[in-house]
Predict the 3D structure of the following.
Amino acid sequence: MSTPAQNQTKFTVSSAAWGRCVLALAVLLSIFFLPFLAFGQFDPSAPEPIRKLRGSLVIHGGGTVQDSVRDKFLELAGGKTARIVVIPTADAQADDADAVRWLSAWREREVESVVLLHTRSRERANDPDFIEPLKLATGVWFSGGDQKRLEESYVGTDVEKSVLAVAARGGVVGGTSAGAAFLSRVMLVGNEMRRGLDLLPGAVIDQHFIARSRQERLMKSLAANPGLVGFGVDENAAMIVRGRSIEVMGDSDVVVCVPDANGRQERVERLRPGKRADLIALTRAAVARSQTKFPPDSPAPPFVEHGSLVIVGGGGMPEGLLERFVELAGGSESPIVYVPCEEAETLPREPGFVGVLRKAGAKNVTWIHTKDRDRSNRDEEILKPLRDARGIWFGGGRQWNLVDSYQNTTAHKLMHDVLERSGVIGGSSAGASIQGDYMPRGDPLGNLNIIAEGYERGLGFLTGVAIDQHFSQRKRHADMTSLIKVYPQLLGIGIDEGTALVVQRSRAEVVGKNQVAFYDSQQTDADDDKDYIAVRPGERFDLKSRRVLIED
């Protein structure tokens, strides 16, 4: 009888490298859900949101595994240099002496190595010699069958740790049918919930989904596990997860399921081949439904107790506005921090806007940037400038980046502290929308949807509002109308390009060359052909009473 040891290529790995893998794994597994909090509040001790995956997943729903799916798996594993471990334990016939059945489809692609790994003994699953092939594997594939057999053999063993480490160091883990279901921590076995690998944080995977009409089953499991999103992968379909990106390939679909909660209807979204989705946005949407309702029915009225806000609609900067921003920060010697809104992990050089602030008279300007929430919580290189700042300016881009980097961290609290000491916070475009409690256009896949569940919360410097930018120039009036119909408790603010609001306490002054539109579901002061109040440069609007102020 052929044994796994006879079919495997021996690998070695240094203890230092293994330690790095374990550390990376610990970081990956520590990432779970962000408890969404009340308006403008944060809790630095709360668990963190899901981050993008270090490695890749290939999740196949069952049926025939297409050549294109195998090729994608091998591409992610390193192409011709791939070192593949195949685990057929879910199959009742995995004890069969003929390993060719499990390995031939992979070996014919002529990669560096293909190894069979199988046991039904948990003692064997903890044997260092047995798990040796996993130490340098670049890809692990779980075959189909009954996922309960995988749980019984491997959950809680060194095999599980080693497979998780493959993903943590940037490899790929995949599976079909039972091997797919095994990749999420909450694992469905019939109508029973068991324990899987937790390679897809915040999710439940169900296979043979459309072919076997399993939507009701998946929704029941999600109802029993609030805060999780469901992925129903149909037969002959595959879900490819890289970083935060989900891509569907194959001959059928993947169905995204989020149960009804907090007044939101059940969400069922069908992703066809070629379609993409964002893992973090979907998991955040599920978490949002499991937490306190947002936005609340009666939000705190817009009011800045201390300090000032400068909120710019994008495009050109109103003349003299940055000089005024520097004055509101306390003058040219006051420390000012620029926070760019970038998706890149690192920036190669000082952002150009730092020089723009210096040209406006600021002599003490620094900048911070990170995509690592650990740094936003603990790194004094990020936190020290914020502790000292009298002014913060947020750059333009896509506002969800600022949420990912700073929301609900120590840095977020320190940003609010700038206002508490009567400083100023400003920003343009994305840097404008991020300032409100409600954040429009947070979808990481594009800025066309004004409501993006999971990314609806901003940094909360101005309560009870939703701020949109590039407003008239990009014809966004109908979008704001639709938003206020869904959330009539909010004050909608649409700021044109080249235009800004300067807010102190409840008073908002319009500055620049165009207008600001205020959407209030309670008011009837709008023009007959408009559902908003247009406020022009030099005019003021009271955010609390929601009326234009008449100056003496």
Summary: The domain at 50-290 is CATH 3.40.50.880 (Rossmann fold). Residues 15-30 form the longest helix (16 residues).
